[in-house]
Amino acid sequence: MQLSDRLQAVASMVTENSRLADVGTDHGYIPIYLCEMGKIPSAIAMDVKKGPLLRAKMNIERYHMQEKIRIRLSDGVLKLNPDEADSVVIAGMGGTLVMKILEEGKKVLVDVKELVLQPQSDIDKVRKYLYENDYVITAEKMVCEEEKYYPMMHVQHGHMEELADIEWKYGAFLLKEKNPVLGSFLKKEETTLTGVLQNLRQQPKERVKERILEIEALLALNRKAQKWMKTEEECEKA
């Protein structure tokens, strides 16, 4: 099983020997890969739609993983039984849906040792949700695939210190580790925000005043993040 860079990064965050539940499994690639590599003993491939589960079933059979991987029709983790999984992957869906799954699955997830989350949007809101609901982010990664950027995080139950605005938005671990993919993303985002701001300033001011202030604030946060990302040597040169 060959995974995309995004899925490979997600899979790498699953702890070895964990019983996995892959929520929104689609083709079942992550559980197949992890079982094939011998990293996990078993998995449940879960999806809310029958179509993706059928595709996952076909792939599971193709790779002869029927004894290790089960499929299950489930809205989020609602059909996951207590103490049935050590690790839950929720990847490739919007941040609002990720938070909905976490909220509706609280009773089941209390027994889960770790979450691997890869929201496609609203990641700052997801981080705040985790903080407010007794989760702690223990690691973060970010990859770029086909010119799209994908941040992801490893999460466990516990207390997380409140983050600064810049950390909610871009990730405390990614900033601290000066993640090069985040650095590339910040430069691209700055260019985009600068272009938006220039276009807004050409329009009647009263009509776009609030939007200008919003973009200026985002641009200031972006530039602050880029400053944090600089090495001591780069700061001295600047």
Automatic annotation (TrEMBL):
The organism sits in which domain of life?
A: Bacteria
Ordered alphabetically, the record's keywords are:
Methyltransferase, Transferase
Signal peptide as annotated in the record = none
- Segments spanning the bilayer are none
Q: Name one GO molecular function term.
A: methyltransferase activity
Name the Gene Ontology biological process terms: methylation
For this entry, the protein name equals SAM-dependent methyltransferase
Lineage, top ranks: Bacteria, Bacillati, Bacillota, Clostridia, Lachnospirales
